[in-house]
Amino acid sequence: MHNGSCQCGAVEFEVTAELEAPDACHCNECRKSTGHYLVSTDVKKDNLKISGEENISWFQSSEKVRRGFCLMCGSTLFFDAIFKDWIGVAMGAFDKPTDTKLAKHIFTAEKGDYYEITDGLPQNEH
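That's the Aldehyde-activating protein sequence above. Prediction below.
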């Protein structure tokens, strides 16, 4: 089991399965919503329990995706692929240890011009 929360604690969650290796998304939407890029892990929706759900604000960023933030502190928490059976959970919101390692970078064609990706992990432009 893995637990986590937003910065102020108004939203807490529990993942009842092992965490998948996360990816780092460098797309424009993730960069704007986080201020840098989003590192998240995909969790089957059935394996995610949320308390304080009334404190989540959902922003519909596209037809297929909505993003969940804490209403109180603004923490980035979730990337919900509406028509899928999984939800992305922001790695920074988990309590340590997560027992995971970053697997890859995605949407690197849209990355910020102020940093380089030098960790040697696979990079997908899209």
